[in-house]
Amino acid sequence: MTGPVSRARWWWSIQAYLALFAATLILPVLVFAGFLLWQYGEGERARLESAALEEARDIAQAVDDELGDLLSSAQILALMPAVRNGRFEDFYRLAQDVQRTLGIISVLRSPDGQQLVNPLAPPGATLPKMELPFDRAALTTKRSQVSDLFTGGVSQLPLFTVTAPVLLDNGEVNYLLNLSFSVERLRGIIARQQPPANWVVAIVDRSGTIMARNIRHEEFVGKPATRDLQENTQGREGTWNGFTADGRAVLGAYSRSQMSEWRVAIGIQRADLTAPLRHSLVWLSLLGAGLLSLSGLLAWLFGQRIAAPIQALADRAVAVGHGETVAPVGTNLSEIRHVGEALATASAKLREREAAIRESEERLRLAVDAGRMAVWNFDVQADRLIGSPELYQLFGFPPDAAPSMEEFRSRYYPGERERIWAEIRRAVEKGQHYIEIEARCVWPDGQHRWLLVRGAIYLGAGGAPSRLFGVVLDISERKRWEEHLQLLIHELNHRVKNTLATVQSIAFQTLRNATTAEEAREAMEARLFALSRAHNVLTKENWEGAELGEIVAQAMEPYEGYGTDRLHWRGPQVRLSPRMALALAMALQELATNAVKYGALSNTTGKIRIVWIVDANTSPAHLHLQWEETGGPPVEVPTRRGFGTRLIERSLAHELDGDVRIDFARAGVTCTVDAPLA
Predict the structure, then answer these.
(1) pLDDT tens digit string along 72-83?
(2) What are the strands, taking DSSP E only, across 516-560?
(3) What is the architecture of the domain spanning 481-676?
(4) pLDDT digit string (tens) for 239-284?
(5) What whole-number distance in Å separates Cα of residue 146 and Cα of residue 67?
(6) What are the angstrom distances between the C-alpha of 197 and each of 190, 201, 215, 473, 495?
(7) 138 FRET partner, CA 20 to 30 A, in 113, 210, 291, 325?
(8) pTM higher than 0.70
(9) What CATH class is the domain 372-472?
C-alpha cells in the first residue's frame, strides 16, 4: 500500500471516531425531540377525532330537527279534510301549492301503494304503483315513518320521504300520505353546519347508500358507501378508519340520527392529520443536520491536531517499507510515541533480515520459472506441506482449504506415493538435485488426474533430503490425448484390415455375379464409392461414430438428379457405431442401385421413402428402419438372390447383430431393419 492511501485512511478513521462521539451526544436529544413531536401528533390526532365526533353529533341533531319538522308537517296534512275525506281535486290543488312554495312533493296513495294524487302529473293521469320499504311499518304501527333514499316514480329524482298514515274515525288506515324531499335538503343541512372545507361529510341511509355529501355531491348520491364505512359504523357513534367513496384515506367519526337511523359520517384526510407533524419533523431534521454538520466540523478541527503525528508515523512506515532506517516520532501523544519507537527498532531488525528475504525470493523465483503453475514446499523433517491455492485445486481441494498431510496422501493413486519417493531416493543417490516425475491422483468424484511434479531437493545433515521445493503442472489433457492417439492407431489398424476384407469381398462377389466386364466395373465403382462416402463421414467424426441422418443423406446424394421430390427420409437423431454406419451405407447403396435398374427410380413417377424410429423401451434400445418404394413398375420376385440381396440380408444382419428382411411386393420393394443400438 502506498503512502498517500495510508494517510487518507488514517485521517478519515480519526475524524470518523470524533464525529461518532459528537453524534452520540446529539442523537439522543434529537430522538427525545422526535418523541415529543410524536406525542404532540398523537394529541392533535385525538383532538381532531373529538372535533369530528362532535361535528357528526351536531349534523345528526340537525337532521333530527329537520325530520321532526317534516313529520309534524305530514301529520298536520294527514288531518286535513281534503285528505281524510278523499277530495282528490282539493288535495291536488293543495299539493301543487305546497310543491311550488316549499318544494315538497305531496303524494297520496292507497294502502297497497297505488298513487292517487301526484302534483307532478296532471289530474286523471295514470300513476304508477309505488311500494316503499317502510309502508308496512306505517300501516302496522299507524305512525309516521321516514324512508331511505329512493328514485321518484314520476320525477325520477333521488328523494327521501316521510310517510304518514291517514286514519278514519275507526282508526283504520284509509290512505298513505307521502311528503317527498329532494336530497338537496340534506346537503343544505350539512352546509349550514359549516364543517371545515377539507373534511368529507356524508349522510348514509340504513341500507348503506349515500344520500348527501358536502364534496362532489352529485357524483356520489345514490352510490353505496365504502365497505370500511359500513363495517366500522355499526354503533350509535364513534370513530372509524378507512377510505371514502372517492378513494381518500381518512380517519373519521360518525353519529346516528335518532329519528331515521341514518349515519352522519365525517372523514379527515390522513395527510391533513400528519401535516403538522411532518412540518415539525422537517424542521427537526434540518436542526439535526445542522448540529451533525457542526460536530463534523469540530471533529475535523480536532482531528487535525491528532493527524500530524500520525502522518509522521505513516511516513516513517513508508520509509521502513523502502528498507530505510527511521528515527522515533517527536510527539506529546504517548501512544503514538511508543509506536514510533517500536517502528524505529523494527526498521533496524528488518535490515538484518533482508539477506534472508532475498534468498527466499530467489527460491520462489526458481520454482515459479520451473513450473509456472502450483507452488509447493515440503518440510521432510516436520512432515508439513505448504502450497499455493492452485496446488489445492490440482489435488481436488477448494482453493481456500487447508488439507492435512493424510488428506493429501489419500489423493494419490495406489502405489504412486511409494514410486515418487523411490524416484527421489534414486535422484539423491545419483547426486541429482532436481526431480521431474509424472504422478497420478484421484479426485473425490473418482476422476483421475495426471500431474507433472518438478522440484529441487535440499539435503540436510547426513545427506538425506530435508526440504523439497518446486511446482506442479496438470498434464491430464496431454495424457488423454496420448491415450486417444494410441487408441486411434489401434482403431486405424483394425479398420484398415476390415476395409481390405470388405473390398476383397465386394470384388469377389461382383466379379463372380457380373455377366460382362462393363457391368462388373460399374457395380464395383458404385460399391466402392458407397464405402468411400461412409468412410468420409466417419473420418470427419474421428471414427467415433456417425449420425444416421448423415449416412442416409450421403447414400442418397448421387440420386438427387432423379428429383428431390422423389426421395424422402426422416427420423430422429441416432448415433451409430462405425461398424453399423458402414454396413447401413453399403445396404442403402445396394437398394438404391436396384431401384435405379428395376424399381422406383427406373421410371419418372416412382418414389423412395426411408423412415426410422428408436424404441427406447427395450434394453438396449432398438433401431427400426424401413426402405419403401412406391410408384415404380410392378415388381417381379427374382428367381435367384444376387450379391446385393445377399449383402443386405446376410452381411447387414450379421454386422448389425439384428434382423433384416427384404419383401418383393408387387407395389414396390420394402426392406425392414431391426437392430440393437450399442
Answers:
(1) 878 877 787 778
(2) 546-547
(3) 2-Layer Sandwich (3.30)
(4) 888 888 777 888 888 899 888 889 998 888 877 666 665 666 677 6
(5) 8
(6) 11, 10, 9, 85, 100
(7) 210
(8) no
(9) alpha beta
